[in-house]
Amino acid sequence: MTLLSPILSASRSVPLRLPAIGLAACLALAGCAPGSDLAPLPQTTAKTYTLGTGEEVRVVIFGQTQLTGRFTINDRGNISVPLLGDVPAKGKTTDQLAQIIATDLEQRKLLNNPSVTVEISKYRPVFILGEVVKPGQYPYEPGMTALTLAAIAGGFTYRAQTNDFSVLRKIDGQTVEGRAPRGAEIEPGDVMTVFERYF
User: Fold this and answer.
1) Quick check: 123 and 140 in contact, CB under 8 A?
2) Distance (Å, whole) CA 132 – CA 150
3) Pair 116, 138 in one domain
4) Is the confidence at residue 17, as pLDDT, over 70?
5) In Å, what is the CA distance from 131 to each residue of 1, 82, 121, 190?
């Protein structure tokens, strides 16, 4: 009995160390998880959202049905408006584009004090890569989140890291990469990557 007691007490102490070792290993792996070093993705607002190539806008000029219509931003960043020709749209907000059209109509003496509104009728697509069932390009829908984009892409694979993702976004003409949680809002043109988890 005396000979066994040191062995028994040693064996009882081993399991007490294992959870601590396991916890430390998990914390180390979590700290090295893909995307963990990324800063949070900055959110933009509707007022600062700028138009891009391939998007479609609806231009409404009050009292001028022949000038009102839907126009696609071409690869040169312009829309082609009747009587005005090419109007620069890429990189502009909807309010800025409306003001450009209104000013152009007035300067050409086509209309006095025209009332112009611009709204987006078709957004740029979004892209998703990595550990989803169907990576690729998808139409943007207002209110889309990182989680809904993953769902549209067929859901996560069994290897996916499902809490945080990488998102590439153009802000003020600069491409920014940041960490986005599941509920983060996705914007037109965003490229989201779902990482593979380590364990």
Assistant:
1) yes
2) 7
3) no
4) no
5) 57, 46, 31, 17
Does 30 have pLDDT greater than 70?
A: no
pTM here is: 0.69
pLDDT in tens, 41-89: 776 655 578 899 999 999 999 988 888 999 999 999 999 999 899 999 9
Provide the pLDDT for residue 65.
87
10 Å CB burial of residue 127 (0-12, 13-18, 19+) is middle
Question: Per the structure block, which two tokens stand in for 50?
Answer: 């700028």
The tally of domains found in the chain comes to: 2
**Residue after which a domain boundary falls, among 122, 140, 165:** 122
Q: What is the token pair recorded at 110?
A: 């086509």
Which structural domain range is residue 173 located in? 124-194
Q: Is residue 160 part of a domain?
A: yes
CA distances in angstroms from 109 to 66, 82, 84, 113, 175, listed in the order given: 17, 14, 11, 10, 40
- Report the distance separating Cα 19 and Cα 61, nearest Å: 69
Does one domain contain both 143 and 97?
Answer: no
Does 185 lie in the same domain as 152? yes
Q: Which residue type is seen at 143? A: G
Chain segment 111-129, per-residue pLDDT in tens: 999 999 999 999 999 999 9
